[in-house]
């Protein structure tokens, strides 16, 4: 009987320990990091061939506010916090869904980050780039969906340094410093542009094709 009592006590202690985070206003942790899927260069080449090549539109009328973000996702969470939870390891959040601890690996530069505030959520295809490529003609609902797209490869947690170095530049002008991420990066860029029927300019197209040729 003593063995059974010991087992029951151990289970109860484990349950109470697991519940303590909730009692303290903490949400459950994410146990493993989920990075965006690896590149499929063959599919990317087919998608690139289907994109319309066109000169970029003007920036007249653009502002980031034209792409409402970060949208609420329920349970006090917004899009940024959801991405942090999805793409981090052992992420702990408070009662307002803010990440209080965890580990993230920024795929742009390979840097391991342990403080959520050191991360930006990058739009693979930047908002301004989308505007110049056709989003200037969208309604606000579609721009909001683009800016908060949790279902694909448009949002990724990376170091603030790399995100700000990238700015709104396309792959003809900027590529991630981690060279072995190049194939995945251009494949994701093409995937987003294909998904939203955005155009590419000639220099952008040639840069994308050049990277894919080496993948």
Task: Describe what this molecule looks like in 3D.
With 215 residues, the chain is an alpha+beta fold. It folds into two domains: 1-25; 31-212, no CATH class. 40% of the residues lie in helices and 16% in strands. It has eight helices and eight strands, in the order H-E-H-E-E-H-E-E-E-E-H-H-E-H-H-H. The protein has helices at residues 2-23, 41-50, 79-87, 127-132, 140-147, 160-166, 182-195, 202-212; strands spanning 27-30, 72-74, 77-78, 89-93, 99-106, 111-113, 119-123, 155-159. A four-stranded antiparallel beta sheet has the order 1-4-5-6, sandwiched between helices. Strands 2-3 form a two-stranded antiparallel sheet. The protein has a two-stranded antiparallel sheet with strand order 7-8. Helix 2 packs across helix 7 (182-195) and helix 2 packs antiparallel against helix 8 (202-212). The longest helix is centred in the first third of the chain and has 22 residues, at 2-23.
Please report the total strand number as a whole number.
Answer: 8
Helical percentage: 40-55%
Q: Going across the biggest sheet, name each strand in turn.
A: 1-4-5-6
**Count of structural domains:** 2
- Give the overall form: globular
Alpha-beta content class: alpha+beta
Mean pLDDT: 87
Residue ranges: pLDDT <50 for 5 or more in a row?
Answer: 1-31
What letter string, H or E per element, gives the SSE order?
A: HEHEEHEEEEHHEHHH
Question: Count of helices?
Answer: 8
Evaluate the radius of gyration.
21 Å
Strand content: 15-25%
């Amino acid at each position: 009987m003593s063995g059974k009592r010991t087992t029951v006590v151990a289970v109860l202690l484990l349950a109470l320990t697991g519940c303590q985070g909730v009692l303290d206003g903490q949400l459950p942790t994410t146990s493993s990091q989920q990075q965006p899927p690896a590149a499929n260069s063959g599919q990317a080449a087919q998608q690139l061939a289907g994109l319309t090549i066109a000169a970029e539109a003007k920036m007249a009328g653009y502002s980031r506010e034209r792409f409402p973000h970060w949208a609420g996702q329920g349970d006090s969470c917004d899009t940024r916090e959801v991405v942090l939870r999805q793409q981090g390891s052992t992420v702990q959040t408070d009662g307002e869904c803010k990440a209080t601890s965890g580990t993230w690996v920024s795929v742009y530069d390979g840097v391991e980050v342990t403080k959520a505030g050191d991360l930006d959520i990058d739009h693979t295809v930047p908002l301004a780039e989308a505007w110049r490529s056709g989003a200037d003609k969208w309604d606000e609902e579609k721009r909001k969906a683009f800016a908060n797209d949790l279902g694909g490869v448009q949002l990724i947690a990376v170091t603030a340094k790399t995100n700000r170095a990238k700015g709104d530049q396309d792959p003809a002008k900027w590529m991630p410093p981690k060279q072995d991420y190049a194939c995945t990066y251009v494949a994701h860029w093409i995937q987003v542009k294909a998904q939203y029927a955005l155009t590419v300019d000639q220099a952008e197209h040639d840069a994308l094709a050049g990277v894919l040729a080496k993948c």
